[in-house]
Amino acid sequence: MINNFKTAEELMRARYNAFEKGEVEFLVETHDPETRKELDVEETKNWALESEWLGLEILSTEAGQEKDEEGIVEFKASYKENGKLTVHHEKSKFVKKDGKWFYHGWLPLQGTIVKDDKIGRNDPCTCGSGKKYKKCCGK
User: Fold this and answer.
1) Which residues have CB under 8 Å from 40's CB, separation 6+?
2) How far apart are CA 79 and CA 135, in angstroms?
3) What is the distance between the alpha carbons of residues 99 and 53, in angstroms, rounded to a whole number?
4) Which distant-in-sequence residues (6+ apart) come within 8 Å of 62 by Cβ?
5) pLDDT digits (tens, 9 = 90+) for 93-125
6) What are the C-alpha distances in Å from 37 to residues 16, 28, 31, 59?
């Protein structure tokens, strides 16, 4: 794995590109080893391969620069799944370990994301736990 990203945002963009290309191994390797067990590799692979990725919009960044040890990137990723346009909105925490950036996990967003009166399977849970809806209240 090449993980020489200078900022958390650079890693975020590389991870989005990995979703576009279905490079699940990269997504696993750039996931913080501390929280990697929470990653459902098979589901991530299916989501990456079964979606048509349409674009990434970085909404904000907090820290996550070259000299920082942590950073936050808020983004929206647009994709089509089963012909339906969806926007995945996430606030992600990144950590730097041994000089390398890793995706650590979700942070709760303000408010609830509802698409067509339905919460998406990969959206943050409405209870604010920071977990994906499908892994929390959506079980």
Assistant:
1) none
2) 21
3) 30
4) 71, 72
5) 999 999 999 999 998 876 544 455 566 667 777
6) 20, 10, 9, 28
End-to-end CA distance of the chain: 34
- Region for residue 85 given its phi and psi (left: phi exceeds 0; alpha: psi -120 to 50; beta: otherwise): beta
3-state secondary structure the chain: CCCCCCCHHHHHHHHHHHHHHCCHHHHHHCECCCCHHHCCHHHHHHHHHHEEEEEEEEEEEEECCCCCCEEEEEEEEEEEECCEEEEEEEEEEEEEECCEEEEEEEECCCCCCCECCECCCCCECCCCCCCEHHHCCCC
pTM attached to this predicted model: 0.80
